[in-house]
Amino acid sequence: MGLVVQKYGGSSVADAEGIKRVAKRIVEAKKNGHQVVAVVSAMGDTTDELIDLAEQVSPIPAGRELDMLLTAGERISMALLAMAIKNLGHSAQSFTGSQAGVITDSVHNKARIIDVTPGRIRTSVDEGNIAIVAGFQGVSQDSKDITTLGRGGSDTTAVALAAALDAEVCEIYTDVDGVFTADPRVVKKAKKIDWISFEDMLELAASGSKVLLHRCVEYARRYNIPIHVRSSFSGLQGTWVSSEPIEGTKQVEQAIISGVAHDTSEAKVTVVGVPDKPGEAAAIFRAISDAEINIDMIVQNVSAAATGLTDISFTLPKSEGRKAIDALEKNKGGIGFDSLRYDDQIGKISLVGAGMKTNPGVTADFFKALSDAGVNIELISTSEIRISVVTRADDVNEAVRAVHSAFGLDSDSDEAVVYGGTGR
Q1: pLDDT tens sequence across 110-127
Q2: CA 269 → CA 303, 338, 385, distances in Å?
Q3: What is the pLDDT of residues 241-281, one digit of tens each?
Q4: Contact, 150 vs 51, CB < 8 A?
Q5: Closest C-alpha among 203, 317, 213 to residue 265
Q6: Which residues have a Cβ under 8 Å from the Cβ of 87 and sit 6 or more positions away?
Q7: How far apart are CA 7 and CA 220, in angstroms?
Q8: Per-position b or e across 128-145, b if 16+ CB within 10 A of its CB
Q9: Can you give the pTM of this predicted structure?
């Protein structure tokens, strides 16, 4: 038996009983002959509570100190889990991200992993220990400061360790039984997917599916690490994410549509009255890039013949909205636009599936389903295997259910069980 990396989210280790249940599952894998490395998130809503506490002390907490604070959550989880495993008669050692060799860049609160040097982890498991690693954190290569990887970063920690340790599989344990054709909190009749390709999962994750972080899937695809998404609250088989179908997973035929994802965490910025000439869009997005803001969808209107002016709209995380407006206002003279509009009451619905590129009727059916549900569309973006639209935030849940039904994705029974937590 080879080495397996298991990641447990905050809902799985939310309390003492949850930690003891996770400890039993880890020990079971050890008894089955595996070397085990477990990556843990902070307990329950600990990270959110720490952020709230920081904001009560300081309206704009310093990035370095916020990272020092937030990493405490995972350190609590890893130590308690190691204690619970030892109580079951097995040896365990806990490690912080820096002790585990997770090396990152120097961007606080959303660092990216540069390298993983897991010498201490390898030594620990070779000595017969179960290694428990704090997720979501690392150490800067340049400054040697503690860093965090952004929300959901424990997924990325787990996959990066799996790649560095040449693990057989990276198991991501959460509070649902796998990846579903839609968020089971919104669509009760969503179906569990037995196997999904890295490409389709990347699109679903980028479009708002919360069960796996986009960067985690990206890392797994790069190093060809199979991911098994499953629940820590049940013993059911979950969803395999890999380059090729896993033996034993149900493969009836290649589905046209993999699923429907939605995202209400974005806002829309419209730059009004932009001169329609070369270089203007570049100036706008250079200002956004210099502010280190990631954007999603972009739409430019046809310019008005009378004025020679156009509008450019783009979406971005709500958390970056104020920073984007400030960056554009600072560069208003150089760009030459008239005004800015900001709208954070939007939502994005995405239809994902590799089969849609050879089925021309998919687009028409998608828009008809939205029309029949009375949902108005504000922006449209497409790729070979995805169609995304922006609508009013209030319309998102109804739109997701309408599209899910229109493409025959509804299950005959309510099989989508949410065991607890918020989905991470």
Answers
A1: 899 999 999 999 999 999
A2: 18, 13, 26
A3: 998 887 766 554 456 889 999 999 999 999 999 998 899 99
A4: no
A5: 317
A6: 23
A7: 14
A8: ebbbbbbbbbbbbeeeeb
A9: 0.86
Q: pLDDT tens-digit profile of 42-96?
A: 999 999 999 999 999 998 899 999 999 999 999 999 999 999 999 999 999 999 9
What tokens does 58 get? 């300081």
3 state DSSP class of 326:
helix
The Cα–Cα gap between 351 and 259 comes to: 6
The mean per-residue pLDDT over the stretch 320-334 comes to 94
Q: Which strands sit side by side in the sheet containing 379-383, from one edge to the other?
A: 259-263, 346-352, 386-392, 379-383
Strands of 227-231's sheet in order across? 92-95, 130-134, 35-40, 3-8, 169-174, 227-231, 239-242, 195-197
Q: What is the distance between the alpha carbons of residues 280 and 74, in angstroms, rounded to a whole number? A: 45
User: What DSSP letter does each residue of 56-113 carry, written as one string?
Assistant: HH-SS--HHHHHHHHHHHHHHHHHHHHHHHHHTT--EEEE-TTTTTEEE-S-TTS--E
Evaluated on CA atoms 37, 222, 297, 407, the torsion sign reads negative
Query: Which tokens in the block code for residue 94?
Result: 């806990």
Cβ contact 311:268 at 8 Å: no
**DSSP-derived pairing of the beta strands 130-134 and 35-40:** parallel
Give dist(CA 325, CA 14) in Å, integer.
Answer: 38
Reduced to 3 states (helix: H, G, I; strand: E, B; else coil), residue 165 is coil
β-strand 379-383 against 266-275: which pairing, if any? unpaired
What is the bridge-based pairing of β-strands 3-8 and 346-352? unpaired
Which pLDDT band holds residue 30 (cuts at 50, 70, 90)?
Answer: very high
In the block, tokens 């919104």 appear at 186
